[in-house]
Automatic annotation (TrEMBL):
Keywords: FAD, Flavoprotein, Oxidoreductase. Residues 142-226 form the Acyl-CoA oxidase/dehydrogenase middle domain. Belongs to the acyl-CoA dehydrogenase family. It comes from the Bacteria. This is Acyl-CoA dehydrogenase family protein. Residues 24-137 form the Acyl-CoA dehydrogenase/oxidase N-terminal domain.
Length: 415
């Protein structure tokens, strides 16, 4: 029988005492050893990449390499190329990945969202067809959920799928589709029974992005980025065999998630906030072109101290939820608390960084005196959307009001 040992891990999440079985130790050692062999070369190649296209190709290549080692989707069952990783092993994997600066995978949206859905609800034929190329990066996926009139109230979606023989003819529009330009497939919610109640009559459909009638239009944001797109669908013909689960039962299909991964997702947010705070402190200590240091301003020092406290609160709340999962319980509403508070902390951190840069803080990329090459002005612009993406602050407040305070649901939610 495997025994349990106590191991400590120092990271941006603080000093963690983790009860590790022999299997956990072997898992962590194998992951670290694999990175020793493969990661340095990929870091070097990414550093030398001189274009976005080259970096995108390397990202797919890295995913293929990780898939070959069964590291691309560790929570998937082993029969589909995963490792059946426990929540504790996910934690160890994430901590090592952050510490070693493991590059992100090109197909992480498919791996984290669509893959588990296919494993839970897909037919054997769908799993055989889609999971392997999703795993190794041959197929990159995007999510077609939000619409111009159906964001927070997703069940109000209006994209329609009309049955035509053995096919669906899909017409409508999806918005804020991350990575659509680089994606091969989209998993989308489509209304296939317009007469059914709001949460019924919706189907989960797999749509090839190169199909006739698919029009991808990148959305240029005020930061200059165009990572999101509008996807227009004009009678796109998709076989009914691409419907996952039962026709008109897509709302229930989409509720399939990996509970343990939800609890651990806070670590990405926490590590990003900690990195931003550390860089802000370094900026405060650096003299501007006039020789002035923000660190000498007592008001700015107070704001840095408050930012540290806020980041620490995000960490502690996330660890509380993680402790539930590691104890075998379901994650609670702490996830919404982390999202709500963390997204506002992210905005405040970038506002602080602009002020730490003084009169030079608002200079954009390319300006000679822009602090850190203009990254803070860019970051401030990007974080204006932090309270919208991935679930608005209003939605998170609703979740907390209903699940903690016992308040009734909004009338529109069941309309």
């Amino acid at each position: 029988m495997a025994h349990s040992t106590k191991a400590s891990a120092q990271s941006a999440l603080g000093e963690l005492d983790i009860d590790m079985s022999d299997a956990d130790t072997a898992f962590a050692d194998e992951w670290s050893t694999w990175l020793d062999t493969h990661l340095p070369a990929m870091h070097s190649r990414l550093a030398e990449a001189d274009s976005a296209a080259t970096k995108a190709a390397l990202s797919r290549e890295w995913q293929s390499l990780m898939a070959a080692g069964k590291w691309a989707a560790i929570t998937w069952p082993s029969e589909f190329g995963g490792r059946n990783a426990t929540a504790r092993q996910q934690l160890l994997f994430y901590l090592t990945s952050a510490d070693r600066r493991v590059p992100p995978l090109a197909g992480r949206i498919g791996l984290n969202l669509c893959g588990p859905t296919l494993i839970a609800h897909g037919t054997p034929e769908q799993r055989q067809r889609f999971l392997s190329p999703m795993l190794d990066g041959r197929h990159v996926w995007c999510q077609g959920f939000s619409e111009p009139g159906a964001g927070s109230d997703l069940a109000s979606l209006r994209t329609r799928g009309v049955i035509d023989g053995d096919d669906l003819l899909i017409t409508g529009q999806k918005i804020w589709t991350s990575g659509a330009q680089q994606s091969d497939w989209m998993f989308a919610l489509v209304r296939t029974d317009p007469d059914a109640p709001k949460r019924h009559g919706i189907s989960f459909v797999l749509v090839p992005m190169n199909a006739d009638g698919v029009d991808i239009r990148p959305i240029r944001q005020m930061s200059g980025d165009a990572g999101f797109s509008g996807v227009f669908l004009d009678e796109v013909r998709v076989p009914l065999t691409n419907v996952v689960g039962k026709l008109n039962d897509g709302w229930n299909v989409t509720r399939t998630t990996l509970a343990n991964e939800r609890a651990i997702l806070f670590m990405g947010q926490q590590l990003a906030l900690t990195a931003t705070l550390r860089k802000s402190i370094a900026l405060a200590k650096t003299p501007d072109p006039h020789g002035n240091r923000a660190a000498d301003d007592p008001e700015l020092r107070d704001r840095i101290a408050q930012a540290w406290i806020d980041v620490e609160l995000v960490r502690l709340n996330g660890m509380r939820n993680l402790a539930k999962v590691l104890s075998g319980n379901e994650p609670g509403p702490e996830g919404s608390m982390s999202k709500l508070f963390g997204q506002h902390v992210e905005q405040h951190l970038h506002e602080l960084a602009l002020d730490l840069g003084g009169e030079f803080g608002i200079l954009d990329r390319g300006a000679a005196d822009a602090p850190d090459g203009g990254k803070w002005a860019l970051g401030w612009l990007r974080t204006r959307a932090s309270t919208i993406g991935g679930g608005t602050s209003e939605i998170q407040r609703n979740v907390l009001a209903e699940r903690i305070l016992g308040q009734p649901r909004d009338p529109w939610a069941d309309a």
